[in-house]
Amino acid sequence: MSQTAFITGATSGFGKAVAQRFAREGWSLVLTGRRKDRLDALVEELGGQERALALCFDIRDETETRSALASLPAGFRDIDVLVNNAGLALGNGPAQDCDLDHWKTMIDTNITGLVTITRLLLDTLIARRGLVVNLASIASNWPYPGGNVYGGTKAFVRQFSLGLRSDLSGKGVRVTSIEPGLSESEFTLVRTGGDKAAYDRLYAGANPLQPEDIAETIHWVASLPPHVNINSLEIMPVSQSWAPFQIHRETT
Questions:
Q1: What is the edge-to-edge ordering of all strands in the sheet holding 131-135?
Q2: Residue 126 maps to a domain
Q3: Could you say which of 25, 26, 41, 181 is the most buried, measured as most Cβ atoms within 10 Å of its Cβ?
Q4: Mean pLDDT for each 10-residue chunk of the chain (252 residues)?
Q5: For residue 243, is it within any domain?
């Protein structure tokens, strides 16, 4: 019997790689994003509309989200796995220099959009004894200069995942927080406003994680026996580790 995965932010990066990985195992897929051309191309790549369904909407908008879910045809309504991948970072400067609109956009996408889609699909996931995979970040656990609101949103995602797991005790629903470190994707181009030079500097010689690495991890989580739950999983490339604590010294 085919299972169905619902993947948010499927137009690039982790989301696209997760869709490709699950498609190879014969899953039915619901793919969401705001770039219709990319969604349509991905649907065709993965076998057409019998295998994959594109839902183009802004996850920050509850009305659009409800309408998109209401439009699901019968063959795609029984969601077994929800992958909450849609998210972004905007800017990497210190808090005192940041754009407040950027902060609000991150909160609306990374927190409000995630909890909205989760709540609207939760009854189905309970009925299917399904799995929720939330994409957090090492920024959930470790602060760094310029992380400010982005890190705060991902800390929420991690804690929400743990709280959701607690609330769903006895329901058979698994919940996992995936927390990647340095990863190469469009994420960094979005964060830097399309600065390709900054993108190249960040990844040069670092051998960062690739979207396929995270997709493989998520597929592994989904393929575990139904009595096994991975609560949270922090993943870094070997090249990345923890820096010393900052110490600011006064000068006279």
A1: 52-56, 28-33, 4-7, 81-84, 131-135, 174-180, 232-235
A2: yes
A3: 181
A4: 92 97 97 96 94 96 97 96 96 95 97 98 98 97 95 98 98 98 92 92 94 98 98 97 88 80
A5: no
